[in-house]
Amino acid sequence: MARVLVLLSLAMASLYVSQGSTLESQRLFNNAVARVQHLHQLAAKMMDDFDEALLPEERKQLGKIFPLSFCNSDSIEAPAGKDETQKSSVLKLLHTSYRLIDSWDFPSRTLGNPNHISDKLADLKIGISVLIERCVDGQTTLDEIDSLAPPFEDFYQTPSEGNLSKHFRLLSCFKKDMHKVETYLSVAKCRRSLDSNCTL
Fold first, then answer.
1. Dihedral of the CA atoms 65, 48, 45, 171 (nearest 10)?
2. Where in the sequence is the domain holding 105, given as residue range(s)?
3. From the CA atom positions of the chain, what is the Rg in Å?
4. What CATH number is given to the structural domain containing 150?
5. Count of structural domains, the chain
6. Least confident residue range of 4-8, 87-91, 125-129, 134-138
7. Which residues does 144 contact at the CB level (< 8 Å), separation at least 6?
8. What average pLDDT does the segment 86-110 reach?
């Protein structure tokens, strides 16, 4: 009887530890999603403010540029579309989010300091790396995944582009990438949710 009680106590303790770990992961996911949502909102506002300051002809010309341009993130392998995103593992979504955020380490410095975007991106990157560590558990680690392709320092600073088009491209790509990361982290959070009815 005593042995049964000991085993029961150990099982209960293990359950409490497991629940505590799950709750902590949920807290980290909630925090990461909230941070990237804030960055996405900032990107959208910056884009709107930029657009409102344009002359009609400038707006027309720039509208033709972005659909034909490439963003920093285009060289980063990422799920395309809702179906592929839903089928991707939590770890893959986290890795992809990390890479997208990391690719803005240098370009974000040209977005302006008032919103402290570089600092916010750095905080989010740390949070995602913590989530990756908690999810790895014997799987491929971040260091074992192919590193980022070419250096991105001057990607958004093509000499042939005018200042207006460079700024437009920078803001458009930043908004696009923050939307991607928000989607990936939200899907990953939902997968790890204690709520069985979690849907996107």
1. 20
2. 31-191
3. 21
4. 1.20.1250.10
5. 1
6. 4-8
7. none
8. 92
